[in-house]
Write a structure and sequence with these properties.
The strands form 6 sheets. This protein has a 15-stranded antiparallel β-sheet that branches. The chain has 14 helices and 25 strands. 31% of the residues lie in helices and 22% in strands. A hairpin with a 6-residue loop joins β6 (61-66) and β7. α6 (345-359) packs parallel to α8 (401-419), α12 (518-530) packs parallel to α14 and α13 (534-546) runs antiparallel to α14 (572-591).
Length: 594
Amino acid sequence: MQQPIEDYAMIGDRTTAALVGRDGSIDWLCLPRFDSPACFAAILGTPEHGRWRIAPVGPAETTRRYVPGSLVLETEHRTPTGVVRVTDAMPTGGGVADVLRIVEGVEGEVVLEQELVVRFHYGRSAPWVQRLEVDGEEVLSMVAGPDRLVLRADPLPTADGHAHRSRFAVRAGERRVLDLRWQRSWRPFGVAVDERRALAETVERSRSWLSALAYEGPYREAVETSVLVLRGMTDEATGGIIAAPTTSLPEDPGGERNWDYRFTWLRDASLTVDALVAVGLHEKVDHWRDWLLRAIAGDPEDMQIMYRVDGGRDLPERELAHLPGYAGSTPVRIGNGAVGQRQHDVLGQVMLTLAKLRAIGHDDAHDAWHMQRALLHDLELHWQEPDQGLWEMRGEPQRFTHSLAMMWAAFDRGIRAIEEDGLDGDPTRWKEIRAALHEEVMGAGFSEATGSFRQHAGTDEVDASLLQLPTIGIVAADDPRFLGTIARIEQDLVRHGIPLRYRTTGLDGLSGDEHPFVLCGFWLVTAYAQAGRIDDAHALMASLVALRNDVGLLAEEVDPETGRHWGNHPQAFSHLGLVLAATAIAEAEAAAGR
């Protein structure tokens, strides 16, 4: 039985990440990068597809927490014979890929079992396993092609069928260290990690970064956890920000809505920067801007909506038929076919974020403005074309109202950059297009019959992305047309307090249904706050924060009736949405004198 998605915590070294279950099993890990093939893939199949489990033998009461100010995970198991603590971490800053698991006896004596099943290439390839002596220490070496995992542990597990297992007892005051390291198979063995120093430095780096947090408003604890999650999904070397560290965790259990999110979407990454800037964490946002410049360098016609974390462009989507999927949800996909879609909103979000960076003193380098101007000139040629929209619809392209508003924002921020910030260029043509887009949003994008903005001109259906219109700046939050849109979304999309993205009526080109989308819940919080409904904003915010798992993580979607999480986990969209919603409430309260 696969454990619930919400039972997983994330640890990571800002180059990759692992999911650790409440049962002590690491069921997902890609090495050495977020988008590398997994060596533990049990979350998408069975234990035979790879995992590393350390847990008490027999029943135990389990509690978990992150070490304050970090993503170092502490799990405490209380058994009839004693209490044991397991600390899981991936040390940062050392230039190596280690998974550290430290077992400490707290009370009495606890017998634990270790099970290690390594399967490279997404659970497909069993490694060549050897017990070797390295610098006077016996280690377990596991090799498949270019990859080697090296386990240093006391005791080392022994072969048992297709797994390696061991049992060991830990008494109060005793400490066992287990270290699993990835390296290239042809490289010499590295030296053992100094685990005390590595842990201390990892926590200190995280706390030092978090000390710049300039947010003192409501839901601060949730904001702290969310920004740490966003930091954990930002590649330390390249500045690329992934959407989630997993692939193919289903939006619809047993269905086909299973996608690979281990890449950098320009939109998601821009919104992540917005969230960090909103709470004062903008020290290294230029790192992301530099990543952006490298990723989309060249002909603006070739700009993609997403890239690999290093800026690579090749993301072919394919299916892994050997994996049965989480909860039987197939296909399991790697890569993402949406990479080739036209999504007009993306450039608008990038321009909005770069404008915010200019406003706080991060002046555009010449190359950055040259890039923006080239992209806007390219949009001049395509703005009248339909697109797949924010939600990456796999049906027919449409003139989505949200996309129109975001194109308006792209030209609007380009015009302002010239007229208000003194950057070079002639905005005459951009002004004409901005006016035309505004007219289309307010005309074809609005339904007089329902008194609401609509998903696109061919339907009176609403879409939760319409909640972003005041944030984009194209309509005021107290405009009757927007208030009517909130009312329609409450009526048509809200399920147990949280909105769906849209009603799945065939437009997205997929079968099946989905659960309420966490980000859309935070967008509704923001809309309430902007519209002066501060009490409603607090009520919804509190219910959303309560849906986080025991260590504060959120997946892409949540079933509010059961509390079950669905979709990839943890999700950047969900956590950046939480941060921005909290700041919207704080701003609304300040404006109201509360």
